[in-house]
Amino acid sequence: MIRKLDSPPYTVDEKVLMRFDQRQTIFGRMLRDKKATFYRKDMYENVAKIIAKNEPRYSRVEFARTLGAWAVYDYFHGAFSWQQLTEPNTVMNKPVLEKYPVMDPHIMSEQVKETAKLYGAALAGICKLDHRWIYSYDIDGKPIEIPEEYKYAIVMAIEMDATAIKTSPAFPACTASAMGYSRMAFCIACLAEFIRNLGYRAIPMGNDTALSISLAIDAGLGELGRNGLLITPEYGPCVRLCKVFTDLPLEPDKPIEFGVANFCKQCKKCAEACKIGAIQFEKEPSFKVVCPSNNQGILRWAVDHDKCYSFWVENGGDCSNCIAVCPFFSHAKMRTSFQALIFRRK
Ligand code: SF4
Ligand code: SF4
Hints:
By secondary structure, the protein is an alpha+beta fold. The protein has one domain (3-88, 95-338). Helices cover 34% and strands 10% of the residues. The protein has helices spanning 26-32, 47-52, 60-69, 71-75, 105-118, 162-165, 171-197, 212-218, 260-266, 269-273, 305-315, 321-324, 327-330, 332-338, and strands spanning 3-4, 123-128, 152-159, 202-205, 223-224, 230-231, 239-246, 256-257. Strands 2-3-7-4 form a 4-stranded antiparallel β-sheet, sandwiched between helices. Strands 1-8 form a two-stranded antiparallel ribbon. A hairpin with a 5-residue loop joins strand 5 and strand 6 (230-231). Helix 3 (60-69) packs parallel to helix 7. The protein starts with a strand and ends in an 8-residue tail after the last helix. The structure holds iron/sulfur cluster (2 copies). One iron/sulfur cluster (SF4) binds next to helix 11 and helix 12.
């Protein structure tokens, strides 16, 4: 059963927790951390050799399909604009109407979530913006400050193709992941413009600007798993996350709990499926960090992102083994059939 909570189901050490610097993420360190074993090692640097081995699901065509799937996320920069989009590819002038008066934040919130789903989000939730989850600096070292008027985060989960994810770590799973990213860009771009066309401000983002999982937990989309990913009741960890900050008056959702923390103490399937030992086997979560890309002060099973990324380089693409084997994902389809009975959201 899903229980609604008054506060998020995570434990932080307030004395230690600090805003995380995006330069400390694995991609920031790949660019700058000369001490890292993967410094300047591109995820695709081994691809030609991997394709030449002629292994099933690692073909030239499948790799091109993966890169094609990244196109919108990687090249449509407008998706991440903090300002209303300009230079339209249309001859129609867009009318600028008066600011829409929000009489009831509850109704507005329902309309926002309905709109997010229309644009492609599988799940959408709203939370008050907790500034602890905003990166202190972006990946280029620019300080990030979000003005106080952006009171809310709309957090969206984009479902990934389950069949393709099950081929992990082969290229079709990388394509599913890339498709998730490009659909994130589509979804945030549309939702941000929707809000701006009501006369309010919107900052859309993918993995940049703030920590997605913490915000998704705050917004009631799911709980944190041993694999370091958000586990949702509907899709398990088979989702990508994106978010839009806004000054539109909204009503936050409540965080939820449906037994992930306890289940993960017994189940170690993700740790067993990780080919490089990046996921912990310890029964209990702890405050221990295992690599410089873990932020301190959060009770969890910290994932060794150094090992994880090293495997991606070896594999010629990202990996979703810890998604594919998760029982919350395996049972997701069955849940869809029985969703109304078992995991109904009110
Ligand atoms: S993505 Fe793959 S390598 Fe990384 S932690 Fe998950 S299973 Fe391990
Ligand atoms: S595979 Fe098992 S231990 Fe890992 S996140 Fe899923 S439920 Fe938790």
